[in-house]
Amino acid sequence: MKGSVGKRITTWVTGNRVWRSLFRHDLPHDDLGRMQTMFTNFFLHLVPARVHFHSLRPGYTLGLGVISLFLFAILVVTGVLLMFFYVPWAERAYHDMKDLEFAVSYGVILRNMHRWAAHAMVAVVFLHMVRVFYTGSYKRPREFNWVLGVLLWLLTLGLSFTGYLLPWDQLAFWAITVGTSIASYPPWIGKTLRVLLLGGNTVGQGALLRFYVLHVVALPVAVALLVAVHLWRVRKDGGLSRPLTPALPAIAGGVPDPATKDATGPALAEYEIFPPFSQKTYGLMELAWGTSPVVETQAPEEEIPSWPHLTFRLLVLFVGVLAVMSTMAYFFDAPLEELANPTHPPNPAKAPWYFLGLQELVSYSALVGGVVVPALLILGLMSIPYVDLNREGEGIWFTSQRGRRIALACLLGTAPLGPLLIYLNGHFGARLLWPEAPQAVVDLLNPGSLLLFLIVLISLMTWRVTGSRRAAAIALFSAFLSAYVILMIIGTFFRGPNWVWVWPWQAGAIY
Amino acid sequence: MARDPGASLRRWTWAFALLSLWAFVFFVLSLWRDYAREWKGYQKTFLQMELSQAKEERERQIVRARDYELNQIIVAGGRRMDRCTTCHLGIEDPRFNNAPQPFRTHPAIAKHPFDKFGCTVCHQGQDMATTVKAAHGEVGFWEEPMLRGPYLQATCGGCHTGAELKEAPLLARGKQLYQEKGCVACHKVRGAGGSLGPDLSLVGTRRKDPAWHLKHFRDPQAISPGSTMPPFAALPEQDLQALTVFMLSLREAPSALAASTPLVASTTGGATHMSRTAPAPPAATGRATSTAGAPPPPGPGALARLSRAKVLYAEKSCVACHAIGGVGGKVGPDLTAEGGTPGRDLEWHVKHFRNPAAVVPGSIMPPLADLSEDDIKALAAYMLSLK
Question: Which residue, A263, B9, B69, B131, has most beta carbons within 10 Å?
């Protein structure tokens, strides 16, 4: 009788109209039921009902896009909670930080989590872009989604940068002062841009209010919108990118296809397919217009149900991100320096870490660091899919073994160039040999522009030798990536007072 | 290549279980970290001490009913919140005269009620902090560590720039030594002195660490290479301390007093008036136990005025003719106790600055005609603060 009582209660709970209106399906027991549930659930329907098994390979996506999204979610939640305790008023802001630390319940944890998740998001979004580039995922029909991605990367930097000012301590004040001075270098618009950003000529109450509004309203709304479009386009463009040649024969036949050799991860046979699997169900998105790779190349057998394979992975990834962020928040406190003091600049005053490569370049030439490199970076990145039109190698890391070698060679080969040029500049720099040199000469002959010149040269040589635009693009991207990361590291750890070279273990290098 | 159909899902299930456990552990640790705040331990100890001191059952009941709470004294119109009393619970209770710190009774200081002045105005330290190290300012990025031992007298000199205070003998000795040792030959204080060495008018704001000053007096070159200042290593330790106290006292007026000081002018409804005998009710001053911030200060700007006046006093070379606390010329009257001169109120000083000879017949002091109304009033308020 006990069993029947339990059953009666269950029936009463799950059988009434309220429950039925909330959960329209019973817990599904087969693929068809799961797919129906996914279609009718708002959150689940963000992912397709069926997914190509290639998209589930951890070694292919590294989960970076999804991790960015989860970090953004953590940032929104912690950010909204922090807003209850913060007033963007120069006289109060710093005190509010102290309140968070010493008086507000969970204030420290909230702020730590927000801070570290923000840094992580800047890094992960960038790595996501690197992954998408190296796997050639920007190619037709995903060109526009790549552009959206670049915009999202810029918005992420904007969010981090605007958030940097809010604590109103010395670190915040001077990082923004330096960062916005980089923004003032472009001709004609630079000065106006800076005044527009700061609401004045210096960082003050006007800047704090503007950064706050940008940080908590304008930029998050823009990111949320663009993320929605970004994800929607992933679906409309036929899911995640994958090799154009059907992978199934290669794996099933036991003969490794050289094109997919590097694709790591479990084979299709490893996925549990839940019976019954007699009927094929196509997602609505597969009825979308256009020639999508789904229709072109995909054998239906390569698709597997998203539930549980994709949905469960998303859940695991989310819990993983949460675990790592809460660990960071527990062990490492977000920095807070002295109250901002406009009359007492620290030496050196450094921009936020992701702009330190630019600041390093600006230290040689404002033209190179403040104008040429940022412009090339943004325009170059956005135009990649419209220059590299060949779909060769799509969905494969580095396109081919040759591409992998080129990428590796450029990443490692370019790394010592930066320090070498900086060393040479210190001993035989244009200003040293010719103290009265016109600015144009210094703008041309300094580590920054020479590095840029060498990188373009490497890329052109690669194009010449291989005849492949993709190979040239890989060379350009890798060399640029390597050079920028090295410059960023130099700016962060090797620059002391008056921007002179110091070793990290010397006093005053890191503050 | 594994061919087990369930292998992949099983792996992810394990990952889920382990990661969930990991996240949960740190969730609980975060809750604990927030709950187990240092100050609660001190409050617990204090309540037990109060309980043992209580004589009647009624008293005990009141003590038992008390909960943990953050205490703060709001001064300077909300710009400073001294939370020291969260742990220093017995400062106003004479029963804790012999109790160990942080509970010991604070000796009463005349005219400096704790609920108006707070603690950090004299002791320094970090006003809003609620952990021992941070509150005492002995952490990075806090420029005013708590002044301990003899150095506490330095903050007296931040406000009492005039005559000697018998409560601060070391400060007086420091001033005396400053004159005796001829420091004035090379260094300026509020406009008086030589210009060979750096101006010391605000040296206490620039260099807040007593150890720096001690080391510097013993061997100036060791701390500022290339310095031509002679070492004072031969002086006894106590004299070096006295000099250090005087150095630390040369500072901007403390912000904590901006809204509550009874000695400076406050603006009400456009009219500036001075109320030395009956201080204007300090805005938003008082005790609060909530963690919420105070409303924005009404902005009397008294702090700014006093600091501005000190700068003006130096800029206008008043010091050439007048002395304050033994520093300055002897052509005009000594201003050390100017604020105590009977019959001289704010209006008198304003009038006097505009046209000295009209108020004091025969005065040769030049009129400060080029100063704005605000500056004149600031200077007048400064005069009244000297006593």
Answer: A263
